[in-house]
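Please, structure for the following, as tokens.
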Amino acid sequence: MEVNKIQKKDLLKVYIRTFFHQGSWNYERMQALGYCFDLIPVLNKIYDKKGDRIEAYKRHLEYFNTHQFMANPILGVNIALEEKIALGGDIDDGAVNAVKIGLTGPLAGVGDPVFLGTLRPLLAALGASFALQGNFLGPLLFFLLFNVIRLGFMWYSLDFGYQKGLSLLADISGNALKKLTEGA
């Protein structure tokens, strides 16, 4: 049995695709098409048979909706699950979707308060204070800091979700998310 088919370069392909995650949002399945699009490089790599790839695509075209920056840890967990399935693990389609749907709500509830309710206003105020002093770098500072933090988080959380796999659920089921949200 092969240990890991997924490498960092495969995760990088998924990471780059997450920038377009919201590009196909719709009212029926919300972000599902973007989510499946994100996973295509990995699914194509781990499934040799066309029928297995099609089944994996169908699994990830089910309803999905969370905060756009918080989709990456879920992607990481699903990549780990799909890899286990491809290597002969006993995981059914329902379990893959249950994990995905189960993580969307809690992570969506963290994304808005942390990124949009705390980080963005804080960095915007910092940039504005520079701009009010006549420094033209204020808006640039805001833009750079916000995106460095956002993009760094998105990469780290994708890799973290993949490395932790299902054990991430135990961490989330504790009070970690609640404490993070209340702190923000």
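The chain has a mean pLDDT of 86. The first helix runs from residue 8 to 17.
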